[in-house]
Design goal:
Elements lengths: L1 E2 L2 E2 L2 H8 L2 E7 L4 E7 L3 E4 L7 H9 L2 E5 L4 E8 L5 E9 L2 E8 L6 H13 L8
Parallel strand pairs: 3-6
Antiparallel strand pairs: 1-2, 3-4, 4-5, 6-7, 7-8, 8-9
């Protein structure tokens, strides 16, 4: 595969397929960071969530990990039979894989992601006997 004016080696092509993204709340900076991971943090993307660049990025990637203030999960893009695209949150809770609808790409905002992280996080808390 050719990138710019250089040929990509087969092992680099394999690495390209393993690129993952993570949206992380940075407590020290009081902001969200969008990280590229290959298997270590490779860099940060230079845009903020809920912007035009954010929504364009969501169109290009198949999945990302969310680590917010209220919890965490993996978000995956799925396609329905009729061709519409939507995002789903996945998290293991008490030994079972839980699945929550996030929404169509235009509705995937930090507010929505934090809301779902909180909902999935509450499922991990043991319920007191009534």
């Amino acid at each position: 595969m050719v990138f710019g004016n250089r040929v990509q080696r087969p092992e680099e092509e394999h690495m390209q397929k393993q690129v993952r993204h993570c949206v992380v709340w940075n407590e020290q900076q009081a902001c969200y960071e969008i990280q590229v991971i290959r298997p270590i943090i490779f860099g940060w993307l230079g845009f903020e969530p809920d912007t035009g660049q954010w929504f364009a990025w969501l169109e290009r990637i198949p999945s990302f990990r969310f680590q917010g203030r209220r919890g965490h999960f993996t978000a995956r893009k799925e396609t329905r039979k009729r061709g519409s695209v939507y995002w789903i949150a996945y998290r293991h809770v008490k030994g079972k894989l839980r699945k929550q609808y996030i929404g169509v790409p235009a509705t995937v905002t930090i507010t929505r992601l934090e809301e779902l992280a909180g909902e999935l996080g509450r499922l991990t808390v043991p319920q007191a006997d009534a």
